[in-house]
Amino acid sequence: MKLEGTGIEGLMVDFRPLTDLMESNGFILGGSWDYERVTYDYKLNAPEKNITYYIRIQGYAVEGDVDKGDAVIRLLPPLLGRHYYPHGVEYGEQEGFTSGIIEKAIGLVQKVVEPAKRYHNQVPEHVVLERLTRWAEENQNQEVLEKMKELSNNPDQRK
Fold first, then answer.
1. Half-sphere exposure of 52 (CA within 13 A, CB side)
2. What backbone torsions phi and psi does residue 18 show, to the nearest 5 degrees?
3. What is the DSSP string of 136-157?
4. Which of 12, 13, 34, 70 is most buried, with most CB under 10 Å away?
């Protein structure tokens, strides 16, 4: 089921700080990522025996490639699912989620929202450098091109 109103939907965050943030809060980057999409999962054990729930936060690259680590990710509404052995996880509304599990899931998602907002719409350094280089090339600005070349050859000078 979709977890509405968490505040995470639509946030755009650079892939690296997003992954650090998610992992530091117990979410694991799923193996189902590709060049354009990411999935973070959180395993939530239920008080009932042999029942496991998962919170899934998905996103897609609006710029860059996930596999290169230079993507900017737009986050989608989180999902709450129930695992059924051996079939997998079902995310439907009809899975009978208790209000306690829903509230716990929303709370876990909201834990990452405020920190993620700090990165929201921040343009990653590599994107700024690429745009500035493109502008300098288009405007034949040799001084800026030389500085960009210097910075790309010596990343320590950027700090």
1. 13
2. -65, -45
3. HHHTT-HHHHHHHHHHHH-GGG
4. 13
Alpha-carbon distances of 157 from 139, 148, 149, rounded to whole Å: 24, 11, 12
Tens digits of residue pLDDT in 28-48:
998 766 778 999 999 988 777
Is the CB of residue 8 less than 8 Å from the CB of residue 29? no
Residue 53 φ then ψ, to 5°: -110, 155
Q: How confident is the model at residue 134 (pLDDT cuts 50, 70, 90)?
A: confident
Strands 88-90 and 12-14: unpaired
H-only helix segments in 25-119: 99-119
Contact present, 19 and 67 (Cβ < 8 Å)? no
DSSP E strands, 32-146: 37-45, 52-63, 72-75, 79-84, 88-90
Dist. CA 70–CA 74, nearest whole Å: 13
Is the preceding omega at residue 47 within 30 degrees of 0, hence cis?
no
